[in-house]
Amino acid sequence: MKIPSLGSLFLLLVLGACNQPVDKIKEEAKLMQLSRELSKLSLADSTETILSYWADDAVVMPPGHPPIKGKMAIKNMLLDKARTPGFKVSWEPKSVVISKSGDLAYITEENQISVYHTLGKSFINVNKGISIWRKENDSWKKLIDIWNTDPFCFKEDKLVQN
């Protein structure tokens, strides 16, 4: 009978330690909170803080437009939207699913995008979407954001006073 060497036992211990189970309930709560924080920041026009939530290789996929790739392109998109009269976006995360490995997750969300119409009224577009998050250095970063418009979910908000 062969007796395992001390090195083999050490290797088994190290490999076993690498496969620690993911506390999915804790990670799900963390991701839901991060999504809510990011939604609040989007209403405050905090571009640099918003960007800190995104991965460097992130992609935004808005309906009817080409993908926006990378943090700098996302920054330019955010700055452009901030200059759009009456533009506001907010969302509420609805569910989260974490991969077995614990390093990827997706969140289903419902969002509302408001803009001023040329008649001076604010219109709200209701959407559904998915955001994909990746864990980097023990921190979650938003990797992909994609959404589409629910049909017949445009609504007039109010007359804008100039």
TrEMBL record:
Which residues belong to any copy of the DUF4440 domain? 32-141
InterPro entries for this protein: DUF4440, NTF2-like_dom_sf
Q: What is this protein called?
A: DUF4440 domain-containing protein
> Which species is the source of this protein?
Niastella yeongjuensis
